[in-house]
From TrEMBL:
It comes from the Bacteria. This is Alkylphosphonate utilization protein. Signal peptide: none annotated. SUPFAM superfamilies: Prokaryotic SH3-related domain, Zinc beta-ribbon. It comes from Pseudomonas abyssi. It holds the Pfam family YjdM. Belongs to the YjdM family.
């Protein structure tokens, strides 16, 4: 089995290497290893530490919960986060409040 990456444009598995470029025969997309590594966006906390699924984080600022009078207090520990795409890039469950989405800029890795 080949260790070549899938095409970032169409996810085809039939890619091949042509010199320094990877080529997809199905959609004719060409890319280099540098472009492929730049496409993967890493989500970091307020201190610049990379986050991953399953991490525990601590809230660093009081956060008002939209649509209610609840507030997530500073120092609230959130376990087992899940990273998602979008403006709010952390999906989690906070005890006493329920499921929420948080921005990574308001948390630090625990």
């Amino acid at each position: 089995m080949s260790d070549l990456p899938h095409c970032p444009a169409c996810q085809s598995t039939y890619t091949y290497q042509d010199g320094l470029l990877y080529v997809c025969p199905e959609c004719a997309h060409e890319w280099s290893e540098d472009e492929q590594s730049n496409d993967s966006k890493t989500i970091t906390d307020a201190n610049g530490n990379p986050l991953s699924d399953g991490d525990s984080v601590t809230v660093i600022k009081d956060l008002k919960v939209k649509g209610s009078s609840l507030v997530v207090k500073v120092g609230t520990k959130v376990k087992n986060i899940r990273l998602v795409d979008g403006d709010h890039d952390i999906d989690c469950r906070i005890d006493g409040i329920g499921p929420m989405k948080l921005k990574s800029e308001f948390v630090k890795k625990a």
